[in-house]
TrEMBL record:
This is Kynureninase. GO terms for molecular function: kynureninase activity; pyridoxal phosphate binding. Its EC number is 3.7.1.3. InterPro entries: Kynureninase, PyrdxlP-dep_Trfase, PyrdxlP-dep_Trfase_major, PyrdxlP-dep_Trfase_small. The keyword Hydrolase applies. Pfam families: KYNU_C. Pathway: Cofactor biosynthesis; NAD(+) biosynthesis; quinolinate from L-kynurenine: step 2/3; Amino-acid degradation; L-kynurenine degradation; L-alanine and anthranilate from L-kynurenine: step 1/1. HAMAP family: Kynureninase (MF_01970). It comes from the Archaea. Belongs to the kynureninase family. GO terms for biological process: anthranilate metabolic process; L-kynurenine catabolic process; L-tryptophan catabolic process to kynurenine; NAD+ biosynthetic process.
Length: 473
């Protein structure tokens, strides 16, 4: 079969799933009965065998891999190897481990580069998302304040680039993950800029998504935007952004284009280099399945290599001379320069195994399966849960890896589901995020999740749970 997942797409495109064998004629029943359809999709799924290589506990339907991915045999093996190296090699592990710890940032950056469409020199692992937002937004603010920036054709700025007399603004959106705003505001403040003036926030029309025309409109209205910093996918609704369109609009306005790819890296293929992205940040604990608090990752376009990072540190020094301990900083001529201090080896080690599994599965195949899983989920919700809304765009090009289910009692519904082994999370005010991640989720799992939601809502079981828990999920 050319497209093993076509039936899932057809279920959605065809206006919904039928009620099963009792419905209509027997020939169509097989195609429209969700249980039969799920079994067929699972039988045809070329990635189905990968599920056995992840450690999801028995009895758990894990739908929260967009927050914390599960362990895999491969990730645990690469972690175990580094623990053994620490025990056996001690300090010599930096040079004598196989491969040496010293280059872990660059080596894992090389492994991630194909997932985001980058040259290996453009990606490195290090720090965390929030720290990387600080150092990268800070770096490009410094460039603007020094009078550098993408040229804006026909625009009167000193040297045709940035007028250092203009306070550079950073364009973000109101649905961003809050940590990014905190970090950008801090970087503006540290340069004597008032964030209330220079953090420009694109508003959402519907409270769920950001219309790319509003990003373009903000750039047309305000000529002081020096950095456009957007997510590749929104953490709550899962809307996927058109990276290439936003990067182009930023550059046409004379602004740098930066992205937070936390909610797409490892689930959606990217082409950062081709799209002209200037910089990007993401984490490795979500779709990259490298474990809680695992090391962050970043992309800096080759044309910017050689800049001095805002948060410079010895691990970003030119590698050949790093151990000469010169107090004068020479940045590495790669994205490696944005590393700061010693990499946390034990928080990086699982990534080696986990990314190898994704490479084996193939990012394009993972994306095809992910879209089919979310198509199937949305079709089932439409068909079986009339009181639940879908807050995620239905258009494939605008849909990331999870689905935002909207319900007025979302918090209690989320708690009831998790209590029953269907692990989801709640994001205020009314969203249950459901992430059927492609490497380890079956179509039968998706059907079970939807049936689980239906059973809870029908029985009112969620009403026994408290709200306002403010828990960590
Ligand atoms: C989009 C986004 N940005 C930033 C963060 C914060 O990342 P970190 O805590 O790794 O700095 C998260 C998740 O926590 C996120 O989802
Ligand atoms: N980073 C997290 C954490 O340390 C604890 C609990 C959750 C998280 C998350 O990643 C939340 C996530 N960024 C989100 O999309 O909401």
């Amino acid at each position: 079969m050319d497209d093993p997942y076509a039936p899932a797409r057809d279920a959605l495109a065809g206006g919904g799933l039928g009620g099963g064998a009792d419905d209509g004629d027997a020939g169509d029943a097989a195609a429209s009965d969700p249980a039969i359809l799920a079994a067929r999709l699972d039988d045809n799924d070329p990635l189905s065998a990968f599920a056995d290589r992840y450690r999801v506990p028995d009895g758990v339907l894990y739908m929260d891999g967009n927050s914390l991915g599960p362990a895999s045999d491969a990730a645990l093996a690469s972690l175990d190897r580094v623990v053994d190296e620490w025990r056996d090699l001690l300090i010599s592990g930096w040079t004598d481990a196989d491969p040496p710890w010293f280059s872990v940032g660059e080596r894992l950056g090389d492994a991630l580069a194909p997932l985001v469409g980058a040259d290996p020199s453009e990606v490195v692992v290090g720090n965390s998302i929030t720290v990387n937002v600080h150092t990268l937004v800070g770096t490009f603010l410094d460039e603007l304040l020094a009078g550098n920036g993408p040229e804006r054709a026909g625009f009167e700025r000193a040297d045709g680039t940035w007028d250092p007399a203009v306070d550079p603004a950073v364009l973000v959106n109101e649905l961003d993950f809050p940590s990014d705003h905190y970090a950008v505001r801090a970087q503006l403040r540290q340069r004597g800029l008032d964030p209330d003036e220079t953090l420009r926030v694109v508003e959402s029309r519907d409270g769920r998504t950001i219309d790319p025309r509003d990003v373009e409109g903000a750039l047309a209205t305000h000529d002081d935007v020096g950095i456009v910093f957007m997510p590749t996918a929104l953490y709550r609704s899962g809307q996927l952004f058109d990276v290439s369109r936003i990067a182009q609009a930023a550059h046409e306005a004379g602004a740098y284009a930066g992205f937070d790819a936390a909610h797409s890296a490892g689930a959606v293929p990217h082409e950062f280099r081709e799209a002209g992205v200037d910089f990007a940040v993401w984490c490795t604990y979500k779709y990259l399945n490298a474990g809680p608090g695992s090391i962050g990752a970043l992309f800096v376009a080759e044309r910017h290599h050689g800049l001095t990072p805002a948060l410079a540190g010895w691990w970003g020094h030119e590698k050949a001379t790093q151990f000469e301990m010169n107090t004068e900083y020479t940045p590495a001529d790669s994205a490696g320069a944005w590393q700061i201090g010693t990499p946390p080896l034990l928080s990086a080690a699982p990534l080696e195994g986990s990314v190898e599994l994704l490479r084996e599965a193939g990012i394009e195949r993972l994306r095809a399966k992910s879209l089919a899983l979310t198509d199937f989920l949305i079709a089932l919700v439409d068909d079986r849960l009339p009181e639940v809304g879908v807050g995620t765009p239905r258009d494939h090009a605008a849909r990331g890896g999870h689905v935002a289910l909207e319900h007025p009692d979302a918090e209690r519904l989320s708690a009831a589901l998790t209590d029953r082994g269907v692990v989801v999370d709640f994001r205020p005010p009314n969203v249950v995020r459901v992430c059927p991640a492609a490497p380890y989720t079956s179509f039968a799992d998706v059907l079970e999740v939807v049936d689980g939601i239906g059973a809870i809502l029908d029985s009112g079981a969620h009403e026994e749970y408290a709200t306002g828990g403010g828990g960590v999920t």
